[in-house]
Amino acid sequence: MKRFPHYICIVANAWHNLDDKLSVYALLRKAERVGSNIVSVGGATFHLALTGLLRDRKCSIHSEYRHAFEELFPLIDANTRRFTTDRRITTISCAAGATDFALELVETKVEAATRAEVIGWMRNTGSEQDAREKEQLDILALVQNDELPKAVLQAVKIFDQELAEPIRIGDVASRLAVSQRRLERQFVKHLQVPPAKFLRKMRLKKARQLVLYTRTPLPEIAHSVGYSSYTAMANNYVREFGCKPTTDRKNRQGTDFLFSV
After folding, report:
1. Which residues contact 218 (CB under 8 A, 6 or more apart)?
2. pTM for the complete prediction?
């Protein structure tokens, strides 16, 4: 019987030159059945989802991929925590998550004589990664920030949950029992942008994830993020990202990162 390693780690770049991904998926399923621990990092979690191993499991996905992942795998319980381990399957969303997971392994697997030195070195390395991760603040993390005013938190939740719908800031303010002017002042004070601009950036962030990481038709993407037409989305997309959605997707071709299920 073929023996499998105790830990198998998969990363996105490793898949680019594989001609027979289905055989690799089958091998991963077999490895899990015989007791291997499987770890996926970043975009490799898309491939892990395609193996079926994330069915009925929780997983972590980077905020950069969240909307695309939810579009492709709506039944998988995904979060944006740094890493999640669920029954020998670990999914790591970011560089800081890789450090955290490695620290956990060191604390439980490495002998005491060398544990302190290794942990100290890794924690110093992780502090730089933490700073980079904070620059990519996710909406889900934002709405858990207790330091923000309640009206701002609730408005962001409404934006996120109703992104496909036409949203008027005045209507949102009314639902929250605050004046539109007060809501706008709070957004500018705490998030440095008015709510309308924040909402537009949310729409475009989700749109770009779907453009880059799925094969969803562009007009469908436009409607799914609240634009009345593809042209309206494309005009805003160019202003935000400096290129058309069609160009962005074309440049992504060949990277093994356009998924369909």
Report:
1. 211, 230, 233, 234, 245, 246, 249
2. 0.69
Q: What was the pLDDT predicted at 22? A: 87
Chain mean position to CA 80 = 6
Q: Are 101 and 90 within 8 A, CB to CB?
A: yes
| 57's tokens | 């499991």
Q: What is the pLDDT of residues 162-197, one digit of tens each?
A: 999 999 999 999 999 999 999 999 999 988 899 999
CA distance 140 to 57: 19
Residue pair 172/158 in contact by the 8 Å Cβ criterion: yes
Question: Cα separation of 128 and 114, whole Å?
Answer: 23
pLDDT-wise least confident of 57-61, 133-137, 151-155, 158-162: 133-137
CA distance 195 to 193: 6
Is residue 90 a contact partner of residue 238, using CB atoms and an 8 Å limit?
A: no
pLDDT tens digits for range 208-225? 999 988 889 999 999 999
CA-based nearest residue to 255, from 26, 42, 37: 42
Q: What are the backbone dihedrals phi and psi of residue 226, each rounded to the nearest 5 degrees, phi first?
A: 95, 10
The answer to whether residues 4 and 27 touch, using CB atoms and an 8 Å cutoff, is: no
Instruction: State the Cα–Cα distance between residues 249 and 260, nearest whole angstrom.
Output: 14
How far apart, in whole angstroms, are the C-alpha atoms of residue 151 and residue 248?
A: 35
Rg over alpha carbons for the chain, rounded to the nearest Å, is 21
Query: Is the model's pLDDT at 133 over the cut of 50?
Result: no
Count CA atoms closer than 13 A to 22's CA, side-chain side.
0
| Residue 142 pLDDT > 50 | yes
